[in-house]
Write a structure and sequence with these properties.
This protein is of the alpha/beta class and about 450 residues long. The chain contains 14 helices and 17 strands. Strands 5, 6, 7, 8, 9, 10, 11, 12 and 17 form a 9-stranded parallel β-sheet that branches. Strands 3-2-1-4-13-14-15-16 form an 8-stranded mixed β-sheet. The mean pLDDT is about 95. Pfam families: Amidohydro_1.
Length: about 450
């Protein structure tokens, strides 16, 4: 008989099977996994026989500092409440984008002081010549380098010229990092927006009409060609259309090291929702038609999409509401960290679109593998004791005035979030354990 800090009982979701069993935790690590209940002793024993115990969820696509009213503390609190044990924060911070060592070191200090969950960081580059900073950012542990072919802001979120992208790819290849892209064609989108504005076409649906699917597919193709000839690893964020997935998998079969994520909104909403739910449903790329949404589920089921993310970004209500008069004035983005675990479980697992094992891979395992976070993503002996416990029988209603899912009934609720053996969220109770999170790096 052994003594542990924590023993968990329930439906344990392993990489390729589910067992009704128990997990033993000591010093923040998984020590044993067994299909049988033991007589081992522990400081704490949690019995969740009717619940699923997943590896701690990971969201690699979060914007905590695009809005100056948000930040690491607020965002990681939402993450813990929503079942996430790790997030990767995007580099387009309102005060100082993460393009150099100084900015990165300052952000790491904030994480070590304020984070409720573990946080990995993306780096980015300036519009011109920024590729020279990539090695310095890599030496400080960034998960990857995020870039864009669409310009939101020249200094904070620029469009990187093609020549700069190719140079960045060469640097990234040399240090075995990954390049991630927001892929939308800047020239076409802005030309269409100008045309619509001149015609006083500022209605809700105009957002999607000025960003048709080919503005995504065209730039994805271009970027994959650049990556093919430089042998760089490339990842596409928030892929919104099934044709994009077809193109990505075509290049993948040719040997390109390419991965793709989609966001929960492209699986659960359509372009009709922007018209009925208003600016809260405005995102970039925009929501697609219902047929495309269903095909995205099909791609997910077939294993053609690597994982699901949120692209979490919170904006003030007053700024979003500007979009009712002129959709082009409302910021793009929606919250997701506190609701996506339940939404994907309810609409995916409980409706048999994906299995619980698929859920664990799409929300944790595959992410850890793609970004080289070896201690996370699996319920496995020696890994961090990170768990997300979901009760499949609880029905509840989402209440979030900033979300297009406000008022939606879902089934499946996060009961506990556990980070390295410590409970950081429990049964709707926020646990005050700020500073429980750590800065996470590749191979950490």
């Amino acid at each position: 008989m052994e003594f542990f800090d924590l023993i968990l009982n329930g439906k344990v979701v392993l990489e390729n099977k589910i067992i009704q069993g128990e997990i033993g935790v000591k010093d923040g690590m998984i020590i044993y996994i067994s299909p049988d209940k033991s007589d081992n002793q522990s400081k704490v024993r949690m019995k969740y026989d009717d619940c699923y115990i997943f590896p701690g969820l990971i969201d690699p696509h979060v914007h905590s500092l695009s809005n100056p009213n948000e930040g690491i503390k607020k965002t990681t609190r939402l993450a813990a409440d929503g079942g996430f044990t790790t997030i990767f924060d995007m580099p387009f911070d309102y005060n100082s984008p993460i393009t150099n060592k100084r900015a990165l070191k300052e952000k790491i200090k904030v994480i070590e002081k304020e984070a409720f969950v573990d946080v990995g960081l993306w780096g980015t580059i300036t519009k011109y010549g920024g590729y020279s900073q990539i090695k310095d950012l890599a030496n400080l542990g960034v998960i990857g380098i995020k870039m864009s072919t669409f310009e939101t802001d020249e200094s904070r979120f620029p469009r990187i010229p093609d020549s700069g992208i190719v140079r960045a790819f060469r640097e990234i290849k040399e240090i075995d990092l990954i390049a991630a892209f927001h892929a939308e064609n800047d020239e076409i989108v802005k030309d269409l927006i100008n045309e619509f504005k001149k015609g006083d076409k500022k209605y809700l649906g105009a957002h999607g009409e000025t960003r048709p699917p080919y503005t995504e597919t065209a730039d994805i193709l271009k970027l994959m060609e650049f990556a093919y000839w430089t042998d760089a690893k490339i990842h596409f964020v928030h892929v919104s259309h099934p044709r994009s997935i077809d193109l990505i998998n075509y290049f993948k079969r040719q040997g390109l090291k390419v991965t793709a994520e989609t966001c929960y909104q492209y699986l659960l909403l359509s372009d009709d929702d922007l018209k009925t739910k208003g600016p809260n449903a405005k995102v970039n790329p925009p929501l697609r038609d219902r047929r495309s949404r269903e095909l995205m589920w099909d791609k997910l089921y077939k294993g053609e999409i690597d994982f699901i993310t949120t692209d979490h970004a919170i904006w003030d209500v007053k700024n979003k509401e500007k979009g009712y008069k002129d959709i082009f004035t409302a910021p793009s983005g929606m919250p997701g960290l506190s609701i996506v675990a339940s939404l994907v479980f309810s609409e995916g697992v409980l409706k048999s679109k994906i299995s619980p094992i698929d859920y664990g891979k799409l929300m944790s395992t595959n992410i850890a593998d793609v970004f080289g976070i070896k201690q996370k993503g699996r319920i496995k002996k020696g890994n961090d004791a990170d768990f997300t416990i979901i009760d499949p029988n609880i029905e509840w209603v989402i209440q979030d005035e900033l979300s297009p899912f406000n008022g939606k009934e879902v089934r499946g609720q996060v009961k506990k979030t556990i980070l390295r053996g410590d409970v950081i969220y429990s049964n709707k109770k926020k646990i005050d354990n700020q500073n429980s999170g750590k800065y996470v790096t590749k191979n950490n």
